[in-house]
Write the structure tokens for this entry.
Amino acid sequence: MSDRPPLPPLTAHLGYWLRHVSNHVSHGFARKLEGRGVTVAEWVFLRTLYDADSIGPSRLAERLGMTRGAISKLAVRLIDKKLVARAESEEDERAHLLSLTDAGLALVPALAALADANDAEWFSALSAEDRATIERLMRQLVGTHGLSATPVN
């Protein structure tokens, strides 16, 4: 007999189940986005710009809970893909603003449809009431723990 104390199985932890589902939901969405040449982090960046029209990198970093360096790297990738444009700020010549190009503006609704389809694929097995309960509980945990960074991985 072992001297080791008995431990509960991994599956006894709610975090295990949350991570298990989250990994599969996220991976499925990442694969769908990959088919459109975009990463999850790029999608979050594009989706945020869609609502902002144009925004400075620092403000975008604040909104997403990311570092300015991470935002700069994403911006360069999306500028190279011709989905984002960078322009000098009219108010401050030292600053610049990021905005979606016409191609970016056209792509975001298509990517949003992929997000909707991914949610439907994974959560349609639940009743509307169960979905609302899960969302309410997740929002409660986010608020309780002061989580502010947008999940991108």
About this structure: The longest helix spans residues 102-123.
